[in-house]
């Protein structure tokens, strides 16, 4: 249990540090998957105290992080005819 708690704490600390980074390269979805996976592993490991819980949490967190990061990176503008045009956010 102590080993799992230590590794989960390290993963959570890494997720916190990754959240402070402003990447200039890479995709938002990829970055979201990394942060979500680390946070999910931390939560799953601490909640269950097992490696299996950490692995499931990492998978769910990675998928959720990728979906959320991809969805929040799309900005749009509306032209005079009311059509939406999607573009990268600045």
UniProtKB/TrEMBL annotation:
Coiled-coil region(s): none
What keywords are assigned to this protein?
Answer: Signal
Q: Which residues form the Glycine zipper domain?
A: 32-73
Signal peptide span per the entry? Answer: 1-18
**Presence of the UniProt keyword Signal in the record:** yes
Q: Which InterPro entries match?
A: Gly-zipper
Name of the protein in question:
Glycine zipper domain-containing protein
Q: From which organism does this entry originate? A: Kaistia soli DSM 19436
> What high-level taxonomic lineage is stated for the organism?
Bacteria, Pseudomonadati, Pseudomonadota, Alphaproteobacteria, Hyphomicrobiales
